[in-house]
Structure formats: C-alpha cells, structure tokens
Amino acid sequence: MHATLPLMRHYGFPAIRRGRLETLQVNLGYRCNQSCVHCHVNAGPNRGEQMSRETITDVLAFLEVAGVRRLDLTGGAPELNAHFRELVLRARELGAHVIDRCNLTILEEPGQEGLAEFLAAQRVELIASLPCYLEDNVDRQRGKGVFAKSLRALARLNALGYGRAGSGLELDLVYNPQGPVLPPPQGRLEVDYKRILGERYGVTFNRLFTLANMPIQRFGSTLVSKGQFNEYLALLHGAHRAENLDSVMCRSLVSVDWRGFVYDCDFNQMLDLPLAIAGRKRPQLSELIGRDLAGQPIAVRDHCYGCTAGQGSSCGGALHD
After folding, report:
1. Pick from 176, 205, 160: which is nearest to 37 by CA?
2. What is the dihedral of CA 193, 194, 198, 201, to 10 degrees?
C-alpha cells in the first residue's frame, strides 16, 4: 500500500473553520464483506478493527450531552460490528436520526438475518452503495455476483417500504466513478438510475448521491501504482469551485474511528490527520463532551479538493448542480 499523504503538498487547500456541529459520523470498524477498488477505507473481510462496547458508550454519552441529532454509521460494513443493533436502538431512544451506510449485499450475509426488518422498524435512513445501474460495471468494481445480490436487497427493502413515496423510510443510492475522473452531474444521472432500475428491475429509491473517489488508501495507492496520482490531483485542483467551501461536510460533522479518536472527516481519519484541539495531539470523543467546536480550524490537505471539485462531493452527495 502506497502512502499518499506525503504526496499532498502541492496546491495548498484554502483554510476553513468549523461551524455548528450537526452530525456525528462513527466508523464502527474496517471489516467488510466486500473489497472495492475505490474504497478509501481499505476495508475488507480480513480487517479486524471493530469498535468496542466501551467506545460505543462514549458515542451515546456524546449524543445525549451534545444535543447532536444525526448519527451517521459507517465502516467497512457497520452492520458487522457486534454492537451495531444495540447502538441503533439506544441512539433512537435518545431521539437521534440514524443513518446506515449500507453496501446492500450485507443483507444476505450469514448472521444478518432480520437486518432489513430491524432497520425498517427503527426507521433508519439507508445510504446504499450501488456504483452503477449496469451489472458488468458493478461486478467489475465489486466482485462477481454483487449486482444481483444488490438488486435482491433493494427489492427486499422496497417491500418493507424503503424508497416508497409516503413511507418515511429513506433509501438513497451512491454512485462512484469507475476510475480517476469526476462524477457526472448528479441530477441527470439520478434520472437515468431511476428509469433503468425501475423499468428493468422494478426498484425504486429516493435520491442518488454522486461521490468523487478520494486519492487515499486503496484507490490512492492504485493511482500511484499506475502513475496517475499527480494527474488526478491536478484534475481535482483544476476543477475546484470556491463556492463549495461553504457546504463541505467537515464544517458540521466530526468523524470518530473505531478506537474513539476524532477527526474532521472520514477521509482525514484514513490519513491519520486528527481533529485539532489545543493541548491534545490526538483527542478522543470522550474529551469533547461539553466542548464547543465552532470556529476551530479544520485539518486540510490536497485530497480536500475531492470535496470541492466541480459540483462538489460530500457524504450527502453533490453540493451544487
């Protein structure tokens, strides 16, 4: 695995500061039932890092005291954490809106029986990764048979009400480009996704999010191996739009890793760039309880252009049309 952080000092991303904290994003571990080429986490079946019950207790304490009402669960496959369902239940009892970043195929994994029904009962918002509406493209990126499994999962979720008008069960899909290119316009691609998935498979969903691939971890290392890293960074930098700076997710989100350490975003977590707090080299979430982060500087490097290039890219999709 090539280290990419030392290669990110060419352009100098603009300095930005935090606003009001609205979302707590928690990475429950790096174990996943898939190993995707574009994965910025380098997740896979052989990763053993998993958040402990003690750290999950800190997450719940922070939610209760800080008044943050959006809990965004990610991984790896967050559902593979042994305490996933307990965390969802407790967070919902605290009044938090819970988001599960789901790869869809996890619904067919042994031990995940009843997962779809549990998510629906707890009214968890699903942001599900489906990098294309074409079978060949998905299987090339994620492995043979992944597209068929994903379609079965979507049909099952639709049957529970997810993605159906008036149900209140949100089901959003995520698109990633196949290589070192920017994603196409989100609105136009969403129309294509809805038309093709609906006509061919009878699948419905609420929104499509387009995300730029980040030049870090597995994807970044692949770029280095192919001699495309500098070219891709130049593409991101050249497509930078200053108006996207006001909407980037790190202004209103903090990211927590499986050990409880805190970062400005999930991408900084993967680069080991911790949140900057005076007197603390590597703060943990428990140390932030009761602390106002508004106005604090955000750690930036050249990968941040991935969030401001073109239409912009964040955990909630494009920032502008």
Report:
1. 176
2. 30
Q: What is the pLDDT of residues 262-271, one digit of tens each?
A: 999 999 998 9
Starting at the edge strand that comes first in sequence, how are the strands of the sheet with 23-27 ordered? 207-210, 171-175, 125-129, 97-102, 70-74, 23-27, 253-256, 262-263
Ordered domains of the chain (ranges, CATH): 5-308 (3.20.20.70)
At residue 65, the 3 state secondary structure works out as: helix
pTM for the full predicted model: 0.93
d(CA 289, CA 246): 26
pLDDT digits (tens, 9 = 90+) for 234-292: 999 999 999 999 999 999 999 999 999 999 999 999 899 999 875 677 899 999 988 88
- Supply the angle between the helices 146-159 and 135-142 in degrees, to the nearest 10: 110
Backbone conformation region of residue 67, classed left if phi is above 0, alpha if psi is from -120 to 50, else beta: left
Phi and psi of 197, rounded to 5°? Answer: -65, -35
Distance CA 121, CA 140 (A): 34
> Checking phi first, is residue 199 left (phi over 0); if not, alpha (psi -120 to 50) or beta?
alpha
Question: Which helix (H) or strand (E) segment is 239 a member of?
Answer: none
Q: Kindly give, in sequence order, each residue whose CB lies less than 8 Å from that of residue 125, ignoring residues fewer than 6 positions away.
A: 97, 98, 99, 100, 170, 172
| DSSP letter assigned to residue 244 | G
